Amino acid sequence: MIEAFLPDAVSLYSALALVAASFFTSGLTAAAGVGGGLMMLALMSYLIPIAVIIPVHGLVQLGSNASRTYIQREHVSWPTVLYFALGGIFGAGLGILFVSEISETLFQLLMGIFIGTIVWIKIPALKNAGKGLLATCGLVTTFISMFAGATGPLVAVFLNNLFDKHRQMVATHGAMMTIQHSVKIVAFGFAGFVFWEWLPLIGAIILMGIVGTKVGTFMMDYVPEKALKLTFKIVITAIAIDLIRRGIFS
User: Fold this and answer.
1) pTM, rounded to two decimals
2) What is the pLDDT of residues 184-198, one digit of tens each?
3) What is the C-alpha radius of gyration for the chain, rounded to an integer number of angstroms?
4) Which residues contact 72 (CB under 8 A, 6 or more apart)?
5) Helix, strand and coil percent figures for the chain, each rounded to 5
6) Which of 35, 45, 111, 116 is nearest to 68 (CA)?
């Protein structure tokens, strides 16, 4: 019965695994501020076809980040989000011109290298970010997101030193990622990706993500952030190495 609502390329067990993963990854993002989208992307590489990962992941993350933004809306810096969004629109339009040219093998390699690098690389955080820099951040990270999917950690670099309160950084980051995934989905829609057959599964994933976001928001002040982030880095690195292996030997 449930299988009738699933895309042909997804088994019931894969669907259940994705729904469960949404709870934990959304909770991770809500509590730590970043990381859940990257982990969800990595897990998707084992459960759904490579060719549809980026648009499906984008829709899932839109639901997760939109719910986080709504729950934490009183802490969002909306002017920061506005200038980021202006750049993001151009980044998505530019990225869709090139994304169809990448083979599945190259995609696996790029995704493995990207997610393995992004969790360990030390990018200096900014002390100030003007309108132009925020728009540039939106353009560049959204363009990369069209190929690599989860650029949340990159966007977080621009926010780490901009706010005195952790809650404001987490909430503003959620709003910025909501915008990024929104314009990305529109771009993939114009490119011809058919979302409708994925909607029931994505709906279930998003609903579970909302629950995870609420739990993660509640746990924000109680979770050992350093231990959580270290565990996350180790898991993601192992998945990244396997993605590179799959890309080389596929």
Assistant:
1) 0.78
2) 999 998 888 888 888
3) 17
4) 30, 167, 170, 171, 174, 217
5) 80, 0, 20
6) 35
